């Protein structure tokens, strides 16, 4: 580490000489970015950044900032005066991109410390994915999250941020989108990484066994209980408890889970007294929780305890070029199962990969590729090998059809970006809310909106 210079960007107009000297002393190579310029950051190289709101002009300077801040490998620290926080755009930028916010006046020491921390978080991100790459070579392929589209980059950023806290995280998304992988990524980037990560699939355990699975039992608690058994909650002590498919948790168990979350103590079945347990809770589901609550299948009080921080896993079909990236990644990963040379995907396979809608998301992609690797006879994997032959050719389209589908896609993406908030999506699309509503109806998208976890109908958290 000694003598090695780490890159630090300063965005603003007034980097003080003492702070600059202090940073250089700590082996930072400081590059001042005049507002309006975008750094050329070497990919896969972590860096740190100071975003000095006290010296930026609002709103002129804020406009280009997204582009500067979007690099997932730079750990940003914002500094500014209290009144800078009154600007909603500033607050949004801090929330979305920065590891820390320092209110001025503050000592240079405090800034230097925060920068070191932000760099550490960004570097962790790099080394975690490098480790995963190494694991993949060593035959432990799980763990690496592939993604480069905007939606995935913002998910990675969110993962890093929620990892730094102990608050409960709720992950929503369709099946096979990577919810479990995300939960694990949070755990591995958190202070609990050396402690257990215990996953429970709430939907897969029969209701009458759930209670003892979760909380354990004492010897003699019921016929057949010859041994004391520690429950999964207790087994996660010190670490992270991942409650998968929480939407399928029976009401009866919801009550005991709520009690646990309130008291942070478990009571084994047939036991006297309770044991304190310290776990970080991450839950996930593909179920639409608003509907589940409305229909009385899920307790609202429990939901609000679980869903303090929310992450949305984008469906595969909304990830653009990432679909191909993932396909190639999976082919590399499972290639050895072929037992012969395989030279990538044929052009028809690539076309089909993009035309198909992937209802089963990444899990389906993996399954199709593994099957194709085994079944294919040529040197390349064809659309037929993926059983997607009918998706090679897109049916000929008229200009009207093309316009309609482009319009639909733009609307879908805007809604996804804004988590179903109609007002924000309409603004981005440059139309009124009323027009957006009419278009949603015309495209049959209204059900999608109400199914989104954070749509307008959701009570403010
Ligand atoms: N972004 C990704 N990069 C690489 N693999 C992924 C990604 N997302 C999901 N996977 C893989 O897809 C499969 C399904 O992911 P999982 O986390 O179990 O989904 P979910 O819990 O949402 O149903 C797993 O094998 C997982 O490793
Ligand atoms: Mg899952």
Automatic annotation (TrEMBL):
Protein name as it appears in the record: Sigma-54 interacting regulatory protein
Keywords, in A-Z order: ATP-binding, DNA-binding, Nucleotide-binding, Transcription, Transcription regulation
Domain Sigma-54 factor interaction: 145-374
Pfam families: AAA_lid_14, HTH_8, Sigma54_activat, VpsR
Source organism per UniProt: Caballeronia sordidicola
An annotated Gene Ontology molecular function: sequence-specific DNA binding
GO BP annotations listed: regulation of DNA-templated transcription
């Amino acid at each position: 580490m000694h003598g090695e210079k780490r890159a630090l960007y300063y965005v603003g107009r007034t980097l003080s000489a003492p702070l600059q000297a202090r940073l250089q002393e700590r082996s930072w190579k400081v590059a001042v970015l005049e507002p309006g310029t975008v750094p050329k950051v070497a990919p896969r190289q972590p860096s740190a950044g100071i975003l000095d709101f006290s010296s930026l002009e609002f709103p002129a300077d804020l406009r280009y900032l997204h582009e500067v801040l979007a690099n997932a490998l730079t750990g940003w620290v914002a500094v500014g005066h209290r009144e800078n926080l009154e600007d909603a755009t500033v607050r949004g930028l801090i929330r979305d991109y920065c590891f820390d916010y320092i209110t001025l006046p503050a000592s240079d020491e405090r800034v230097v410390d925060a920068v070191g921390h932000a760099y550490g978080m960004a570097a962790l991100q790099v080394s975690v994915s490098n480790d995963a790459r190494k694991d993949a070579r060593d035959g432990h392929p799980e763990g690496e999250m592939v993604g480069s589209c905007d939606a995935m980059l913002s998910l990675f950023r969110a993962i890093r941020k929620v990892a730094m806290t102990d608050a409960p995280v709720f992950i929503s998304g369709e099946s096979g989108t990577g919810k479990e992988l995300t939960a694990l990524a949070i755990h591995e980037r958190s202070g609990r990484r050396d402690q257990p990560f215990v996953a429970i699939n709430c939907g897969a355990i029969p209701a009458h066994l759930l209670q003892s699975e979760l909380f354990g039992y004492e010897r003699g608690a019921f016929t057949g209980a010859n041994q004391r058994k520690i429950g999964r909650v207790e087994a996660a002590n010190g670490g992270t408890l991942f409650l998968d498919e929480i939407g399928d948790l029976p009401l009866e168990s919801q009550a005991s889970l709520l009690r646990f979350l309130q008291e942070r103590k478990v009571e084994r079945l047939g036991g006297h007294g309770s044991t304190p347990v310290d776990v970080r809770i991450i839950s996930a589901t593909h179920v639409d929780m608003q509907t589940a609550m409305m229909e009385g299948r899920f307790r609202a009080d429990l939901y609000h305890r679980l869903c303090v921080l929310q992450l949305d896993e984008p469906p595969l079909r909304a990830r653009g070029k990432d679909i191909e990236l993932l396909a190639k990644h999976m082919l590399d990963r499972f290639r050895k199962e072929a037992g012969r040379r395989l030279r990538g995907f044929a052009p028809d396979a690539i076309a089909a990969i993009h035309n198909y809608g992937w209802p089963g998301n990444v899990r389906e992609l993996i399954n199709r590729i593994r099957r194709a690797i085994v079944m294919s006879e040529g040197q390349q994997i064809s659309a037929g090998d993926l059983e997607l032959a009918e998706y090679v050719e897109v049916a000929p389209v008229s200009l009207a059809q093309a316009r309609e589908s482009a319009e639909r896609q733009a609307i879908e993406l805007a809604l996804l970006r804004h988590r179903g908030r109609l007002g924000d999506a309409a603004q981005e699309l440059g139309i009124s809310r009323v027009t957006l509503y009419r278009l949603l109806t015309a495209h049959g998208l209204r059900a999608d909106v109400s199914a989104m976890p954070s749509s307008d109908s959701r009570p403010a958290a």
